[in-house]
Design a protein that fits this description.
The longest helix is centred in the C-terminal third of the chain and has 30 residues. Helix 7 runs antiparallel to helix 10 and helix 8 packs antiparallel against helix 11. This protein is an alpha+beta fold. The protein is globular and about 75 Å long. The protein contains eleven helices and twelve strands.
Length: 378
């Protein structure tokens, strides 16, 4: 094996190992900010993952790997201080004053237990506009995001906002969001979620890796024409898209519900099956069938993210359509980068051995670790 190949494989191994901590979905916190007509107060419900709080505040005092309610409750003042010092609301150029309105509570999300803060922000001059600056955990995790539902005074529906390191400061509209704005917001969130959904991406890429190859006498050989590879990619992507769109819609509308641990474990298992199939080519011309069958499970995973983000009741269909379109656009962007590179390298030993075979083994190992974590809640 050449030095270049060994170096590339080592780099790929390092990259996959670095993502092993992302067996569950990435770090988010969830806020609902609600205004009321004739009032300058903003009520706030803020859900922050205990795993993130423990990382920063070391809540697990006895270091036994398990957080108890007592350990969390004893640090309530510190948790509240950490949160409110990293979210600044201001109106008329003056900072809003925070007030704690209820004791700390706990709630379950699709990816674990969250601390729930109940707050109110007093914002004199609210009628002149409201601005927010969010910076929670950015110093320790630049990928962290604050997912906000902003309900303007007099509005029955929420406006979805995403606060990240590059969008930490935003203005909150005092007028209800229109249909186009709702569609745009959820579309952007769909794009972002497929890009940070490493298990979904690895499943799709594992299915697409052989698209630029063909089986000849039991061995992988380069596909002779680009149009054949494009056709194979379109079949896989279309099947995956159709399948996860069906279950995403059914789950988001409350028609079907599956336990989160079952869904996340099945998604990890799907990555293993897709990756190991590349070693023997057992399912050769029917990868689109695998994409459809497992895509149904992946749809439930997308739905859990959408449920945590929250859906506006009066614009549910628009939000659902926008999110789904965003997922597809993010997916197509990945394919647009992958296909020309893979086709250009298809005849090389680096691609057929280093990327397809060794890469598939590494992906299967990583997904196997994810499966153990999700099955046993490690």
């Amino acid at each position: 094996m050449s030095r270049l190949l060994r170096a590339c494989l080592a780099g790929l191994a390092g990259l996959l190992a670095a993502t092993s901590v992302l067996a569950h979905k990435p770090s988010d916190s969830y806020l609902t900010l609600r205004g009321a007509e004739g009032s300058s107060d903003i009520t706030v419900r803020w859900d922050v993952a205990l795993r993130d709080l423990d990382y920063v505040l070391q809540l697990d005092r006895d270091n036994n790997g398990e957080l108890t309610w007592g350990e969390v409750r004893q640090r309530e003042a510190e948790i509240t201080r950490l949160a409110t010092s990293h979210l600044a609301l201001s109106a008329a150029g003056k900072a809003c004053a925070w007030e704690n309105t209820a004791p700390l509570q706990l709630d379950r999300h699709s990816d674990g237990t969250y601390a729930v803060l109940s707050l109110v922000a007093h914002c004199p001059g609210l009628e002149s506009g409201l601005k927010a600056h969010y910076a929670l955990f950015f110093d320790v995790d630049p990928s962290h995001r604050g997912l906000v539902q902003w309900i303007a005074p007099g509005s029955a529906s929420g406006q979805a906002l995403i606060f990240g390191t590059e969008s930490a400061g935003q203005s909150l509209a005092l007028q209800p969001a229109g249909a186009w704005e709702t569609l745009r917001q959820y579309l952007l969130d769909g794009v972002w979620h497929i890009w940070i959904g490493y298990d979904h991406i690895l499943f799709l890429l594992a299915l697409l890796l052989p698209a630029v190859l063909m089986r000849r006498e039991g061995q992988w050989a380069p596909a002779p024409r680009l149009d054949g590879a494009v056709k194979e990619v379109l079949k896989v992507v279309t099947a995956f898209t159709l399948a996860h769109s069906i279950t995403l819609s059914l789950a988001a509308l409350g028609v079907i519900s599956l336990p989160s641990r079952l869904v996340e474990s099945a998604i990890a298992a799907s990555v293993i099956v897709a990756a190991l199939n590349n070693l023997r080519g057992t399912i050769e011309m029917k990868r689109w069938v695998m994409a459809f069958v497992f895509g149904l499970i992946h749809g439930f995973g997308f739905a859990s993210v959408l449920a945590d983000l929250g859906l506006p009741k009066d614009a549910l269909v628009l939000a659902l359509v926008g999110f789904n379109i965003g997922v597809e656009l993010g997916q197509l962007a990945i394919v647009a980068v992958f296909l020309p590179v893979a086709f250009a390298l298809r005849a090389t030993k680096f691609y057929r051995v280093g990327v397809l075979k060794a890469g598939s083994v590494l992906v299967a190992l990583l997904a196997g670790w994810w499966l153990l974590q999700r099955m046993f809640d490690l």
